[in-house]
Write a structure and sequence with these properties.
With 75 residues, the chain is mostly helical. The protein is 60% helix and 0% strand.
C-alpha cells in the first residue's frame, strides 16, 4: 500500500484538528463537509476505516514519532 508523505499527513492532521477544535461538526454544512473530506482523505492516506485509527496511524508516521509510543496500542 502506498502511504502519503509525512508532510502531507502532518497537514491533514493539523487541518482535521483545527476543524474539530472549531466544532465544525456542529457548524455550517460547508464546515461539516470540509471536516468529512479531511477525515476521508486521512483514512485513505493511512489505509484505515475510521478517523481515530487514521489519526493514530498518521501521527505514528510523523517525524519525531517514537517507536515505544503507546498511543498505537488499542485497549
Amino acid at each position: 500500500m502506498l502511504m502519503a508523505h509525512p508532510a502531507v499527513l502532518k497537514d491533514l492532521v493539523e487541518q482535521y484538528e483545527a476543524l474539530r477544535a472549531l466544532h465544525a461538526e456542529n457548524g455550517t454544512a460547508e464546515a461539516r463537509q470540509r471536516m468529512n473530506d479531511v477525515a476521508y482523505t486521512l483514512c485513505v492516506s493511512t489505509g484505515t476505516r475510521d478517523i481515530d485509527a487514521a489519526l493514530i496511524a498518521a501521527r505514528h508516521r510523523l517525524p519525531g514519532a517514537r517507536v515505544e509510543d503507546d498511543s498505537l496500542l488499542i485497549a
